[in-house]
Fold this sequence. Notes:
Structural class: alpha+beta
Amino acid sequence: MTLEERKELLELLVEFEEKILKYVSSGCDIRQHYKPYVPNSRTSVKHFHFHLQPRDLNDETHRIVDPNQRSLFQDLSPEEQEKLTLLLKD
């Protein structure tokens, strides 16, 4: 994907996010999905795609998922932080 194509894609996502925020809800999640490890089949083809999900403070995702996600995420150890910092510098 070229840099120009990436810019166009991001601009399109932001354009639709703005419409969602104006007409549908007070928030919006944008998620990218790319799973090259899933083999191609009759119903699945390797590709990446985006989801734009309207969100509000008390929507079902907030009530069910958000309170439970805290236990899924942990702070990195200082060693992990340093390793990741070095890896991302390149």
